[in-house]
Amino acid sequence: MSAPALIALAHGSRDPRSARTITALTELVACLRPDLRVAPAFLDHSAPDLDSVVDRLVAEGHSEIVIVPLLLTEAYHAKYDVPAVVAAAAKRHDDLRIQTTEVLGIEGALFRVLDARLREALKDRRVRELDALVLAGAGSTDAVANAAIARAARAWGAHHRLPTIAAFASSVPPAAGEAVRAHRADGRRHIAVGMLFLAPGVLPDRVRELSYEAGAVAVAEPLGVDQEIASIILARYAVGAVGLVSFDHLFTGA
Fold first, then answer.
1. Residue 78: pLDDT band by 50, 70, 90 thresholds?
2. Tens of pLDDT along 14-59?
3. CA–CA distance, 79 with 73 (Å, rounded to integer)
4. Whether the model pTM is above 0.85
C-alpha cells in the first residue's frame, strides 16, 4: 500500500515570489521524503488551486490525501476557507479519503528559523547592537490568532532578553512602524524586526517599509525555505496519515 499523498496548502498571493517560495518549500519536503507524492496548492491568487491538484493526484491513482495547511495561526482561513475547499474537493471524488491536519502553528522550530533570518539581516546591515525587537505577523479579525502572535513575541523577547512588541500588517494595531516608534519613545534606538510570514509578498513588504521609515536598524526576511519548516510539515503529515488508517484495516491486516 502506497503512502497517502501530501498537499501543502498555502494561502496564495498576487506576488509571484510567494508561490515560488511555497513551491520550493514543498520541493524540499519531497527531497526529505522521496517516497511521498508531494504537491503545493493555493487557496487564492496563485495556481494551482486545490481542486486541480486533487484531480491530478486522483488521476495518478491516489485514493488517500493528507492536506497540511501552511498557516501559522488558526485564523479565518484555517477555520473556514480550508474546510470549505477540502469538502468541495472531496465531494467530487466518491472513493477519495482526505485528512486535513492542524496548521503549522508557531512552535520552537520556527523560532530557530526566525533567529536565522534575523542574524542574516543584522549581518547585511552591519548591526552589532540591539536593544529591542518587534515581531510582525499578518494580523487577523480573529482575536485568538492575534493572541498567538502576541505570545510568540513575548517568548521570542524573553529568549533574547529584549523588550519585544508584537505588530500586525493588517486588521489590528499596532503596525510595524508604530511598534518601532513605541520602542524609540522609550529611548531605544537599535530595534530589529522579525517576520512571522512564510513567504515574501505585499504584507511583508509593507512591514519592511514601515519599519525602516520608523527607524528600525534591521528587518528580517520571511521564514522562507528551511529544513526546520519542512520537518514541521512532515510531522503534521505523519499525524494526518495515521488518521486515515481505519481500525478495520488494522485488525484484518488487509
1. confident
2. 999 999 999 999 999 999 999 999 999 999 999 999 999 999 999 9
3. 10
4. yes
The three cell numbers of residue 162 are: 529584549
Q: Return the C-alpha cell found at 186.
A: 522609550
- Which of 75-84, 92-101, 160-169 has the lowest average pLDDT? 75-84
pLDDT, tens digit (0-9, with 9 covering 90-100), for 202-247: 999 999 999 999 999 999 999 999 999 999 999 999 999 999 875 4
Question: C-alpha cell of 238?
Answer: 505523519
Residue 226 CB partners (closer than 8 Å, separation 6+) = 25, 28, 113, 116
Q: Three-class SS of residue 135?
A: strand
Name the maximum alpha-carbon separation found in the chain.
69
For residues 223 and 184, give the distance between their C-alpha atoms in angstroms, rounded to a whole number.
26
Classify residue 179 by burial, with Cβ atoms within 10 Å: 0-12, 13-18, 19+.
buried
Helix, strand, coil content of the chain in percent (nearest 5): 50, 15, 35
**H or E stretch at 99:** strand 97-100
- Phi and psi at residue 3, to the nearest 5°: -70, 150
Do the Cβ atoms of 172 and 143 come closer than 8 Å? Answer: no
